[in-house]
């Protein structure tokens, strides 16, 4: 089609340009097509990243899109923060402020990458802390107030022995702290029952008096009496070991005898007082067990499972299961269930844009499988330099024509239009294009290129936009405004070695970002 138009126009060019006077304007034309001397040179830098451009025929303006998100002036290939894989996103390159690079997101503290509303171990509620619930969420795990009114486990069991002869009690402040109550000490500062009272009568016939002999017992000043203050010898000395874990004490009713005060071994087989009971809860999900020394306890705590609870799970969160599934936490977080969407419509496990036969590219085509992991949009004509949409034939005085179309990600990201323009006056003319009605939250770009009819070489001056030479070797100008801001391009084409600038003008609209929309954009063009 394009070759046929070219042959027809080649014949017309001989008719219109083969003879006749040069109709170029004798009055000097400025770079914007007017006659007034411009205040700035078109194309010179201005602002942060801009260049001076035409504002009508007689004035100039600074066309400046400002710095990009990385502080440079070029349009970034990908938006900062856009995903580039699982737990990966594009961030500004450290070495180049006009480029981005795909980097791994830092661990959020739960093994995932999404930002959490609270940091794991951050305090919450009365006695709670935020705990991971899987890789991408946290919950406030509230712990009960302890027996002393505070948070967390008590360092000792209430009533257990402490100090010389004391027991652990709450400090009384309601802050969860404890103190060792030694009010049960005997007169000598020990824990055992004494055979008498310090200063009391003792010995044979009561001729002596009791005095402390260390902290465990009394001795009688009557040297003829035994250690318990009676007459005769004792079977064992008070304070010496007996039984499993006991010591001998004076018999409180018979000062001629001793008794073995033996509490027996603890549940671990030792003689020490344990701080808790075997099997009592400790840590996050643990229980107390006997330590290797049999005198103390260890907390055997596996910690929370992948679902943030203490139940033993049958696998790990994220493990593969079924056809295409993975294990996820159940609604009560007590088990793992298989979240399996099954095979996709093409027999694979990857996410696809739809099902076989579904409409695509805003109704221009239908989806078909391209292997198991991707799809084609059959029926969509992907325009390019070799197959653009024909807008028709015009002269250099035609203006304010419009056309509409749509762009969608994946299958229809670039639209090409072209028109043949006859340089009727053989004077400078200014092809221009304005892209408007860009869908909300989307970013499209506009480029306008020139291909001369009667010359193999050309140059363009960008009155509005930035100079560009595309992959097909066409010279033109482009507008790269951010977001849904309208794009506007105006250029002055020059076919070298001829006064006839007749030729093809290409309008290229390209999708840059957005989730996809079937709302039509509007291209307004003129020459």
Explained architecture:
This protein is mostly beta strands and 527 residues long. The protein has one helix at residues 2-17, and strands at residues 45-46, 50-55, 59-63, 83-85, 88-92, 100-104, 123-124, 128-132, 138-141, 161-162, 166-170, 178-181, 201-202, 208-213, 217-220, 241-242, 246-250, 258-261, 281-282, 286-290, 297-300, 320-321, 325-329, 336-339, 359-360, 365-369, 375-378, 389-395, 401-405, 414-422, 432-436, 443-452, 458-464, 466-469, 475-479, 487-495, 503-513, 521-526. Strands 28-30-37-32-35-34 form a 6-stranded mixed sheet, with no helix packed on it. A 5-stranded antiparallel sheet has the order 29-38-31-36-33, with no helix packed on it. It has a 3-stranded antiparallel sheet with strand order 1-2-3, with no helix packed on it. Strand 22 (320-321) and strand 23 (325-329) form a beta hairpin. It is rod-shaped.
Question: Topology of this structure?
Answer:
Blueprint: H1 2-17, E1 45-46, E2 50-55, E3 59-63, E4 83-85, E5 88-92, E6 100-104, E7 123-124, E8 128-132, E9 138-141, E10 161-162, E11 166-170, E12 178-181, E13 201-202, E14 208-213, E15 217-220, E16 241-242, E17 246-250, E18 258-261, E19 281-282, E20 286-290, E21 297-300, E22 320-321, E23 325-329, E24 336-339, E25 359-360, E26 365-369, E27 375-378, E28 389-395, E29 401-405, E30 414-422, E31 432-436, E32 443-452, E33 458-464, E34 466-469, E35 475-479, E36 487-495, E37 503-513, E38 521-526
Parallel strand pairs: 28-30
Antiparallel strand pairs: 1-2, 2-3, 4-5, 5-6, 7-8, 8-9, 10-11, 11-12, 13-14, 14-15, 16-17, 17-18, 19-20, 20-21, 22-23, 23-24, 25-26, 26-27, 29-38, 30-37, 31-36, 31-38, 32-35, 32-37, 33-36, 34-35
């Amino acid at each position: 089609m394009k070759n046929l138009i070219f042959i027809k126009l080649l014949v017309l060019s001989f008719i219109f340009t083969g003879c006749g006077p040069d109709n170029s304007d004798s009055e000097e034309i400025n770079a914007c097509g007017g006659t007034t001397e411009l205040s700035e040179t078109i194309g010179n830098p201005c602002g942060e990243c801009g260049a001076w451009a035409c504002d009508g025929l007689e004035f100039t303006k600074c066309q400046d899109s400002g710095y990009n998100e990385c502080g440079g002036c070029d349009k970034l290939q990908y938006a900062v923060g856009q995903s580039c894989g699982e737990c990966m996103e594009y961030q500004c390159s450290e070495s180049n402020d006009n480029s981005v690079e795909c980097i791994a997101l830092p661990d959020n503290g739960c093994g995932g990458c999404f930002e959490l509303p609270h940091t794991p171990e951050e305090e919450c509620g009365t006695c709670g802390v935020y705990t991971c619930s899987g890789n991408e969420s946290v919950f406030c795990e509230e712990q009960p107030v302890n027996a002393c009114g505070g948070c967390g486990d008590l360092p000792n069991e209430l009533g257990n022995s402490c100090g010389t002869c004391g027991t652990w009690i709450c400090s009384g402040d309601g802050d969860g702290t404890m103190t060792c109550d030694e009010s049960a000490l005997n007169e000598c500062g020990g824990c055992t029952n004494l055979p008498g009272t310090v200063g009391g009568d003792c010995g044979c016939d009561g001729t002596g008096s009791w005095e402390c002999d260390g902290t465990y017992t009394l001795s009688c000043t009557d040297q003829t009496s035994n250690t318990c203050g009676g007459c005769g010898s004792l079977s064992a000395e008070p304070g010496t070991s007996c039984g499993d874990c006991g010591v001998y004490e004076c018999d409180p009713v018979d000062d001629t005898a001793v008794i073995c005060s033996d509490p027996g071994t603890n549940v671990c087989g030792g003689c020490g007082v344990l701080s808790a009971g075997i099997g009592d809860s400790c840590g996050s999900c643990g229980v107390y067990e006997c330590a290797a020394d049999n005198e103390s306890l260890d907390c055997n705590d596996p910690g929370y499972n992948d679902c943030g609870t203490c139940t033993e799970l049958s696998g790990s969160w994220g493990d593969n299961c079924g056809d295409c599934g993975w294990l996820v936490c159940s609604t009560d977080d007590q088990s793992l269930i298989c979240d399996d969407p099954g095979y996709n419509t093409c027999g694979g496990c990857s996410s696809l844009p739809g099902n076989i036969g579904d409409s695509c590219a805003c109704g221009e085509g239908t989806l078909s499988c391209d292997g198991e992991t991707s799809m084609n949009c059959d029926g969509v004509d992907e325009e390019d330099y070799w197959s653009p949409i024909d807008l028709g034939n015009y002269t250099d005085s035609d203006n304010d024509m419009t056309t509409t179309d749509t762009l969608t990600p994946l299958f229809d990201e670039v639209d090409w239009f072209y028109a043949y323009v006859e340089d009727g006056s053989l004077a400078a003319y200014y092809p221009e294009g304005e892209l408007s009605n860009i869908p909300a939250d989307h970013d499209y770009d506009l480029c306008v290129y020139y291909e001369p009819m009667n010359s193999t070489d050309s140059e363009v001056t960008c009155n509005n936009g930035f100079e560009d030479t595309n992959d097909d070797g066409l010279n033109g100008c482009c507008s790269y405004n951010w977001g849904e801001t309208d794009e506007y391009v105006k250029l002055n084409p020059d076919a070298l070695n001829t006064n006839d600038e007749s030729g093809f003008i290409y309008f290229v609209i390209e999708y840059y970002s957005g989730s996809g929309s079937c709302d039509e954009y509007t291209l307004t063009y003129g020459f």
